[in-house]
Amino acid sequence: MADQPEGKLVARPEDLGVHSITHDEIPDVVETLALAFMNDPSWSWIFNDEDQRLHQLRTLWHFLVMSSMRYPWTVATADLMAAALWIPPGGEELTQAENDELVPILTELMGERVSLALETFELFDQAHPHDRDHYYLDLLGTHPKCRGRGIGVALVVENLRRMDEEGAPAYLESSNPANLVRYQGLGFEPIGGFHLPDGGPFVTTMWREPRPPHEA
């Protein structure tokens, strides 16, 4: 469900103050992510009521951020203008209890369209590779007022540097086809994909093998 690393790399990753977020930073991180996805082709199709979309995204992303806080890989830049949720090797996006909580949350947010959202999450899960441990980029977003500066790219570059040091691969789903070239520039390659239900947009799945440090 990654968003977009928009723009060319114009800032040095090591200068961004990338860190594991604190609980006090959760509201600002959720706001950055919600605004980042407002015009995403896939999520604006799922949450198709523009008047309700920001509230829906805030609610859903808050749920996912709270879940991901059990890992140190919920990261952001120092100014919280770009954030990423990574699930580390052996981790899980949601526990069974959290999956059970998700249904009433989506039902409240979507009403009669909840079946579409549940089917969407099922498609994401079915496409996810399970035969090899990896880092999973669950969410990535840059605040709209900072897009085009390469902050999202720099954030991911810094994350991938640490993964390369571990020799760990990475996986993501790109919900916006405009981002494929950018992700490929970071070493990800398309491995498949799926259409969202009822003729919805296409989501591309991408995999990245770890690189030796001098090649990253």
Give the low-pLDDT segments: none
The percent of residues in helical segments reads 40-55%
Strand proportion, as a percent range, falls in: 15-25%
Individual helix count: 7
Fold and architecture overview:
40% of the residues lie in helices and 18% in strands. It is of the alpha+beta class and 216 residues long. The protein has one domain (13-208): Aminopeptidase. It has a 7-stranded mixed sheet, with helices on both faces. It is globular, with a radius of gyration of 16 Å.
In short:
This protein has 216 residues and is α+β, with helices and mostly antiparallel strands. 40% of the residues lie in helices and 18% in strands.
Keywords:
globular; Aminopeptidase; alpha+beta; 216 residues; 18% strand; single chain
Q: How is the secondary structure organized here?
A:
Blueprint lengths: L18 E2 L5 H11 L4 H6 L3 H19 L5 E3 L5 E6 L8 H15 L3 H14 L7 E8 L8 H16 L3 E5 L5 H6 L3 E7 L6 E7 L8
Parallel strand pairs: 4-5
Antiparallel strand pairs: 1-2, 2-3, 3-4, 5-7, 6-7
Helix pairs in contact: 1-3, 3-4, 4-5
